[in-house]
Specification:
The protein is 31% helix and 14% strand. The radius of gyration is 22 Å and the shape is elongated. By secondary structure, the protein is an alpha/beta fold. A 7-stranded parallel beta sheet has the order 8-7-6-9-10-11-12, sandwiched between helices. It has a 5-stranded parallel beta sheet with strand order 2-1-3-4-5, with helices on one face. The chain has 2 domains: 2-93 and 282-300, NAD(P)-binding Rossmann-like Domain (Rossmann fold), CATH 3.40.50; 96-273, Rossmann fold, CATH 3.40.50. It contains 10 helices and 12 strands. Helix 8 (211-216) links the parallel strand 9 and strand 10 (222-225). It has helices spanning 11-20, 54-58, 78-83, 96-111, 114-122, 147-158, 185-191, 211-216, 234-243, 284-300, and strands at residues 2-4, 25-27, 43-46, 65-68, 87-89, 139-143, 162-166, 178-180, 194-197, 222-225, 248-251, 271-273.
């Protein structure tokens, strides 16, 4: 059977999956409830956020394929998956449009000072004394030059921005004007009006932006994190924004999700919080299931699946 643990999948998309496969389909968003007969599960469709560990996999002896409906697989016990010969696939290429739109919406929101107009409307205040800025000519630094970063860069270039990129090798990538790497990270940060984080979480990238990096940034620089929460030292960011060392930040990812109600991030003026939705538009399930639908015949015919994860490398 196929088990879906994606907690918010609309019924019409569940029905579409039922049409694709030739096996029973069961939806059980909470594996702890043990509604599903785990010993009969051959395919698991999941966000990968549940506790998919060795103990759970031991209770799923028939499991052959885990399809993760996101890019990251860091919450899955990859060693256990590898030991059991389970195929693991994720979804890629579906986030380019929504995440790049998210970044540009923040850039325009900040540059055009939309928050001030919303505030003035509530006060019934028709104030034309302070002029707004323009995006044209500003510099965006994108840390991560993969497909999402490239799409963000394309949209930024459409607004006549200068776009800098960062990757581990420093190799040139279109459409970035310049590409930097670890030994020139500080130089890149000093130039940026907007800093966009798209890096994965690794030992090297944890606290990628901390007190030192924030001190290097312009006073009117704005930080946008759509990569992973641990890329930023939250305490250092809060202090930097409160002190006016940088203009502000938009955070869509966090060390702990959901972001706890008692997190100090909620209360900081000029830090915008969004609930990890930058890549998840109304077309998310359609695009994810398209990938699953393309892979299912390959699975049935014993062929290699698209977007297959190497459990050893983690990607």
């Amino acid at each position: 059977m196929l088990l879906i643990t994606v907690y918010d999948m609309p019924d019409e998309h569940v029905e579409r999956i039922k049409e694709i496969v030739d096996m029973p389909v069961l939806v059980d968003p909470n594996l702890e409830n043990l509604i599903a007969p785990l010993d009969q599960v051959e395919i698991l469709i999941t966000y990968g956020l549940e506790n998919i560990n060795a103990d759970l996999l031991d209770r799923m002896p028939a499991l052959r394929w885990i399809q993760v409906f996101q890019t990251g697989v860091e919450h899955i016990a990859l060693d256990a998956v590898s030991e059991r010969g389970i195929m693991l696939t994720n979804v890629r290429g579906i986030y380019n449009s929504p995440m790049s739109e998210y970044v540009m919406s923040i850039v325009l929101y900040v540059t055009r000072d939309i928050e001030r107009f919303i505030r003035n409307q509530k006060l019934r205040k028709f104030d034309r004394t302070k002029l707004v800025d323009e995006v044209k000519g500003k510099t965006m630094g994108i840390f991560g030059t993969g497909t999402i970063g490239q799409e963000v860069a394309n949209k930024a270039k459409a607004f006549d921005m200068k776009v800098l990129g960062f990757n581990t090798s420093g190799r040139p990538v279109e459409p970035f004007d310049e590409v930097y790497t670890w030994n020139s990270k500080d130089e890149m940060l000093r130039q940026c009006d907007f800093v966009v984080l798209l890096l994965p979480e690794t030992e090297q990238t944890r606290n990628f932006i901390s007190k030192k990096e924030l001190k290097l940034m312009k006073e009117d620089a704005y930080l946008i994190n759509i990569g992973r929460g641990p890329l930023i030292d939250d305490n250092a960011l809060i202090q930097s924004v409160v002190n006016g060392d940088i203009k502000g930040a938009a955070l869509d990812v966090f060390d702990e999700e959901p972001l706890p109600e008692d997190s100090p991030l909620w209360d900081v003026e000029n830090i915008l919080i969004t609930p990890h939705l930058s890549g998840k538009s109304v077309r998310f399930f359609e695009r994810s299931i398209n990938i699953f639908e393309e892979n299912y015949p390959a699975y049935k015919n014993g062929k290699e699946l698209t977007f297959l994860i190497d459990p050893v490398r983690g990607y």
